[in-house]
User: Fold these one by one.
Assistant:
Number 1:
Amino acid sequence: MAQPRQSRALVIVNTNFYSSDGEVGLGTRRGAKREAEKLSTVLSRLDYKVKLMHNKTAEEIEDLYRQERCHEHGEYFVSIISSHGEEGIVFGCDSEPVKLTRIFQILSSEKRPLLTKIPKIFFIQACRGTEFDQGVVLECDSGEPEPDCFSGYLSIPPQTVVMFACSPGYGAFLNIAGSMFLQALLKVLEGEERHLALNRLLTRVSWEVAFRCQARGTYEGCKEMPCFVTNLLQEVFPFSA
């Protein structure tokens, strides 16, 4: 009997940056490499065939997604991008931008109709602006407050889910121990909550960041609010054993 096709995951983490003139570009992202390696290990345990790539240029990032069109895919495709960014873009290690919509278009090409039909799930650990979230004080009669999550409109192709580390216009935090967002994702994927339907799992990640995480040091007290956009028409369980 033929073996089922294995779901694939592509993890791209940029930690060191340079500019086109050879000078040092954007700041070094300490802590990003180790958490990306941990996430890759967890995804492998969840039966994903994982490709982990370090310090790729803008052109190389696009090429990695073109290569994915040539592979046989299982039920899901998961991608994690950890880099510097701005609204709608992430930066290659050459400090050149890659539009997220360009990545989505590559995977939605009619040349690879099978890939367009399976759920594609993106986790984007990157800033979306320069504002910092000071948080708000919530008063509740009882129990724990529910997270309030808002995402600006993002054009995505069918069968796609995109979760961002932060809301539009805001910065995403990272330190030597890792990022608020991907550490929360790692915690959920390592626990029993990984069996939840995807929309509930992502809401749980948002809750972890909103209520369990807070910046220290220079940005003491600042918060972060992940958000996601989806056009899936059915419940999926991409991380359930």
Note: The two ends are 21 Å apart (CA to CA).
Number 2:
Amino acid sequence: QVTELVLDNCRSSNGEIEGLNDSFKELQFLSMANVELTSLAKLPTLSKLRKLELSDNVISGGLEVLAERCPNLTYLNLSGNKIKDLGTVEALQNLKNLKSLDLFNCEITNLEDYRDSIFELLQQITYLDGFDQEDNEAPDSEDDDDEGDEDDDDDENEAGPPGEYEEDDDEDDGASDLGEGEEEEEVGLSYLMKEEIQDEEDDDDYVEGGDEEEEAEGVRGEKRKREPEDEGEEEED
């Protein structure tokens, strides 16, 4: 049931990896980079394999095995191996589904018109060493996936977590309720204050009135006292 297997930096024994056999029928991706492989003679039959990484080994030939045992390959990385001439690569013509081939850091790349020769020899491939014939870079499926995840994250951020707006509304309602209560309180206090002020003014008026009456009575008393005195003086005169 394994579909992906990475054996990078393991050590091969007599050109094979111990435990890698025909039982991996569902395998679609296999990576054996830097495992000191000298040939592919002992590669098991992997009919569903689509991507094969064989970089940084010492493979110099015998590529015809790939068409027999991995007929559905679409991607093959042979960079950093001992491949020197076009005759070695010619064996890949039988990989009819092959779309991408990597021969970077192999001696064959030093040949004159290397790229044109490979594209002419293997007409089924679209990308050589990561670029097509027009020097357009091959798309990276992992980068595409990451971009898709970023877009999803942006959408989620824009949309906001569910319930957030509801909470905000509740807070606003609570604040408005408090505001109304405060207004009512303020109105009640100011109303009471006005009443108290009016009561005080009435009391002052009353007190002032009483003082005026008392003063008037005092004046009258003085007049009464003076009148007899004045009369007595007149009699003496």
Note: The CA atoms of residues 133 and 232 lie 148 Å apart.
Number 3:
Amino acid sequence: SDIGSQKERVVTEEEWLQKWEMGNIGFHKEQGHPLLQKYLDVLLNGRSGLRIFFPLCGKAVEMKWLADMGHSVIGVEVSEQAVKDFFSEHSLPYCEEPVPEISGAKMFQSTSGNISLYCCSIYDLSSSIVGKFDGVWDRGALVAVNPRDRQRYASLMIDLVEKNSSYLLVTVSYDPNKHKGPPFYVPESEVKSLFG
């Protein structure tokens, strides 16, 4: 696949943390993403009480929206500030506890118990820690993952979903030689080779 000069580009965990610290989070959508509303029926497929995963969740407002509908929302985010901002901006009380299986990781859970956000690298997660999911809302994760890590990311995501799950993926299309990313350009052919 031709992803131009992006192939070797690496954005470090420190750079992502710095984006949150500096408030350089143009990728965050205050009103939620219109594509989730448009394709919500595809994600839910007539089912209720789903376990829905938000990879690289930031402080996505859709997490509260889906939890309010009766679903369990589980997210992972490297920035503790983003996770705490999510709970404070929605006035949600939460508790914080260590994740014994992952050194240095914390899990922030709403007092109501239906939103659990893991603060760690996504690559530290496994289905033995977080279980399996009925749905995934990948609005900015695959396009944020370093191009060299896409196969690793896709393998993890495939491991985390149930057989009959729904996976909504948002990508962006542009000339990768004119923008260094992120968001990175992920051609449709690569999405198909990653996820089958």
Note: Residues 58 and 82 are 5 Å apart (CA to CA).
